[in-house]
Amino acid sequence: MKGPRNDGPSLDLAELLEAAERFAVAAGTLTLKHFGALLAAEAKSDGSPVTIADREAERYLRSRIRTAFPTHTILGEEFGEEAGSAPVRWILDPIDGTRGFMRGVPLYGVLIGIEVEGEAAVGVAHFPPLGETVSAANGLGCRWMVRGASEARPARVSEVTGLSDAAVLVTDPRVALSPSLGEGWKRLAAQVDLARGWGDAYGHLLVATGRAEIMVDPILAPWDAAPFLPILREAGGRFTDFSGVETIHGGRGVSSNGHLHAEVLALLNPAG
Fold first, then answer.
1. How many CB atoms lie within 10 A of CB 80?
2. Residue 24 half-sphere exposure, CB side, CA atoms within 13 Å?
3. How many CB atoms lie within 10 A of CB 84?
């Protein structure tokens, strides 16, 4: 492992991206030790579950980051924020999709996003059981690594330009049918070719790799969203909140192939 670096003004996004990829894959290996077993879970203050695997993976990530980049800030879902002096913040979700993980569903992910001077600059989404990783840094493109492949390939969104040919995904249909979003979701789902619930981070992966066109995420914490703004941007698509702002802090998110983004937002928000 590399020793601590000098976090001066010339931050190297390629170095941050490479480190985030390594850390995510290693943390994912830790989660696989628990995957498929019946795990006890505790309820957090928001009612969501947390397991020993979530905590073990986040502790591991924090240790690797703190060793390699000792002046960086770290924000994680399970253990909050540790402030640093450099203008860099790592945002961690050790297991995105804990409920599915607990049921043996192989679509959970290890998510790492990195903000530089407040801008989402690096994103890594690693899916341990699938052996897939999508990662990007601003200006460096988006790459898709698949277990068994000799090298990464470029990740690109699809070129679909009509909703009637599009696949739309959603994290949880029950949330999408809530009073605040239900009518907009019904309008959108009625116009697409395929509507499915391949949710959590995996839906955003499918959009970034051209296998779906739209992912609607009605409830997003920063650690849920952190990798996807740079990933979708560098893959040729878009990631915004429901008002069209490119942010990981909007509380809601839409990934798309870009061609359909404005039309999707108009259907979800008919009043503007």
1. 8
2. 34
3. 18
Which residues lie closer than 8 Å to 63 by C-beta, 6 or more apart?
Answer: none
Distance in angstroms (rounded) separating the CA atoms of residues 162 and 108: 30
Residue type, 2: K
CA distance 112 to 35: 20
Q: CA Rg, the chain, in Å? A: 18
Residue type, 107: L
* Chain segment 159-218, per-residue pLDDT in tens: 999 999 999 999 888 877 788 788 899 999 999 999 998 888 999 999 999 999 999 999
For the cut 70, the answer to whether the pLDDT of residue 15 exceeds it is yes
**Token output for 44:** 């957090």
Gap between the Cα atoms of 202 and 97, Å rounded: 9
What count of residues does the chain have?
A: 272
| 25-50 per-position pLDDT tens digit | 999 999 999 897 656 556 555 656 67
Predicted TM-score of the model (pTM): 0.91
Per-residue 3-state assignment (H helix, E strand, C coil) for the chain: CCCCCCCCCCCCHHHHHHHHHHHHHHHHHHHHCCCCCCCCEEECCCCCEEEHHHHHHHHHHHHHHHHHCCCCEEEECCCEEECCCCCEEEEEEEEECHHHHHCCCCCCEEEEEEEECCEEEEEEEEECCCCEEEEEECCCCEEEEECCCCCCEECCCCCCCCHHHCEEEECCHHHHCCCCCHHHHHHHHHHCCEEECCCHHHHHHHHHCCCCCEEEECCCCHHHHCCHHHHHHHCCCEEECCCCCCCCCCCCEEEECCCCHHHHHHHHCCCC
Q: What does the buried/exposed string (b/e) look like for 194-206 if buried means 16 or more CB atoms within 10 Å of the residue's CB?
A: ebeebbbbbbbbb
